[in-house]
Design brief:
Elements lengths: L5 E4 L7 H9 L5 E4 L3 H9 L10 E4 L2 E4 L1 H11 L7 H23 L8 H27 L11 H16 L8 H11 L2 H6 L12 H10 L3
Parallel strand pairs: 1-2
Antiparallel strand pairs: 1-3, 3-4
EC number: 2.5.1.18
Keywords: Transferase
Enzyme class: transferase
Length: about 220
């Protein structure tokens, strides 16, 4: 064992991508194991690796962690990305939960039936521009600082830049009415650890394609 966190998931974004983002932003190298068959997944369950019979699975600091939120909270705490006190942590958690709601829509989009794709894409655009991005535009404008909480880089900033880029892949002009978020996106994208993660050849996964969707359905079929 190299001492690096070991991530077990499919070779695609899904629920693991936000974990990859957070580790990369913290400057942490990690290893990955990709599930390609239902048999691999069933073996993890049989061997007792998956507490609730679900992935993501992250092996870190001698623990076999499941549940995305718990994994990310641990990583954020370990690498000082979770605020300096309880109030900052509460704000970060609120922002993260909000962004996660938007990311859930993006996560499910590739699995939309063909006749629902246009409607679901419109829903993503509507939620991003009317419910979620205005919150962060206002926060950044009101306090005039580079980061969302305490003028210090946090888990919430990582989640927000991931969400911005994910929505932009589907709605390229989504930030046109959000000047503060445009500045935020540029600053975040140029942070050394994030800039490295955005380069070709990094562990960042491409947008889900038909092969990824087929693999997910095969691995998790009942």
């Amino acid at each position: 064992m190299s001492g690096k966190p070991r991530l077990t998931y499919l070779n695609g974004r899904g629920r693991m991508e936000s974990i990859r983002w957070l580790l990369a932003a913290a400057g942490v190298e990690f290893e990955e194991v990709y599930l390609e068959t239902k048999e691999q997944y069933d073996k993890l369950i049989k061997d007792g690796f998956l507490l609730f019979q679900q992935v993501p699975l992250v092996e870190i600091d001698g623990m076999k962690m499941v549940q995305t939120r718990a994994i990310m909270s641990y990583i954020a705490g370990k690498y000082n990305l979770h605020g300096k006190d309880l109030k900052e942590r509460a704000l970060i958690d609120m922002y993260v939960e909000g962004i996660s709601d938007l990311m859930q829509m993006i996560l499910m989009f590739p699995f939309s039936p063909p006749d629902a794709k246009e409607k679901n894409l419109e829903s993503i655009k509507e939620r991003a521009t009317n419910r979620y991005f205005p919150v962060f535009e206002k926060v950044l404008k009101q306090h005039g600082q580079d980061f969302l909480v305490g003028n210090k880089f946090s888990w919430a900033d990582v989640q927000l830049i991931e969400a911005i880029l994910a929505v932009e892949e589907k709605v390229p002009d989504v930030l046109s009415g959000f000047p503060q978020l445009q500045v935020f996106k540029t600053k975040m994208s140029n942070m050394p650890t994030i800039k490295k993660f955005l380069q070709p050849g990094s562990p960042r996964k491409p947008p889900p394609d038909a092969h990824y969707v087929e693999t997910v359905l095969e691995v998790f079929k009942k």
